[in-house]
Specification:
With 300 residues, the chain is of the alpha/beta class. It contains 12 helices and 9 strands. The N and C termini lie far apart (71 Å). The structure holds S-adenosylmethionine (SAM). The site of S-adenosylmethionine has 23 residues, from helix 7 and strand 4.
Length: 300
């Protein structure tokens, strides 16, 4: 007997995309719309890395694969759980990571700047060491170690559970010798004299008000990963105050501020911040040199 279900990749994606669109899901955990999310689901289950013309024309989705796709799509709709948690995976800066609910789903704009090796901000500066502050799944630390193939990276998080996930990702990419994990509160996790050429950070920066209004998908993520206090800037300001002494003389900080970028500008209107523009036009990643940080740190 002939089974009737969408058998081509394109038909399968369109089928899931329609379900997602009709269910008014929120997309923001690694994808930005129903089509991207449906494509990710279908490609993950069918273990495809890309969809070429040949795959479009010849690949047949098997019935067990279709049933898995259907089940995952239903779960995504019924629970509103981000797809990354349902699949146990996420993509960041061109690499696949193991993900579960102990960490947020990687989506920082910093990923695209890592892929570009922070061009043109580092110039000819040689990079030997980097720090990923607030590492979560370890995605930034691992992506940096892969982009700069001879540097060492230290990665800090306050959450022991998050560090377990980061450890898995470091092992997955066999980076145990170049990426080290530290548990603790920001720079307190490190020795007072540790310094780095590059400090990269995606800190908790969401204000109390914004947290209350977030779509249901965000409730699956650890609160400690978002909570930036009343104006979102509690941790950001601590980093701005403490960062310079952990940078080498030619060192530089890159920090994502997302929704708190405007708050920071309003808090310190006279500070000439430099914002990196991401491919979607958002300017939410801040960069400062050690010398700039020394000049402004007292203001925070
Ligand atoms: C926005 S998430 C970023 C995770 C990861 N870097 C990413 O981009 O997907 C922030 C992370 O900061 C950690 N965190 C929160 N407060 C911290 C603190 N005081 N010291 C160190 N890490 C902290 C959280 O556990 C969480 O993993």
């Amino acid at each position: 007997m002939q089974e009737v279900y969408p058998k081509t990749i394109i038909a399968c994606i369109e089928y899931v995309e329609k379900k997602f669109t009709d269910s008014r899901l929120f997309f923001g955990h690694g994808t930005t719309n129903a089509h991207e999310e449906a494509s990710w689901l279908v490609m993950s289950v069918t273990e495809l890395e890309e969809i070429t013309l040949e795959i479009e024309q010849t690949f047949v989705v098997q019935l067990p694969q279709y049933l898995s796709i259907e089940k995952l799509a239903e779960l995504r709709i019924m629970t509103r759980k981000p797809l990354a948690y349902l699949l146990g995976e996420s993509w960041f800066s061109g690499h696949k990571f193991y993900i579960d609910e102990r960490v947020i789903v990687p989506r920082s704009h910093i990923g695209e700047h890592i892929r570009d090796r922070f061009h043109p901000w580092l110039g000819i500066m040689p990079i030997q060491s980097a720090l990923d502050l607030c590492t979560g799944s370890g995605c930034i630390a691992v992506a940096m170690a892969l982009a700069f193939c001879d540097i060492t990276v230290d990665a800090v998080d306050i959450s022991v559970e998050a560090l377990d996930v980061a450890r898995k990702n470091i092992e997955r990419y066999s980076l145990d010798k170049r990426v080290r994990l530290f548990q603790g509160d920001l720079f307190d996790a490190l020795t007072p004299l540790s310094s780095y050429d590059l400090i990269v950070c995606n800190p908790p920066y969401v204000s109390t008000q914004i947290i209350q209004d977030l779509p249901p998908e965000y409730r699956f993520e650890p609160a400690v990963a978002f909570d930036g206090g009343a104006d979102g800037l509690d941790i950001v300001c601590r980093i701005l105050r403490e960062c310079s002494k952990h940078l080498t003389n030619s060192g530089r900080l890159f920090m994502e501020l997302g929704s708190a970028a405007m708050e920071l500008e309003e808090k310190s209107p006279k500070t000439p911040f430099t914002w990196l523009t991401s491919s979607n036009g958002e300017s939410a990643v801040l960069t400062l040199t050690k010398q700039e940080l020394i000049k402004i740190q007292e203001r925070f």
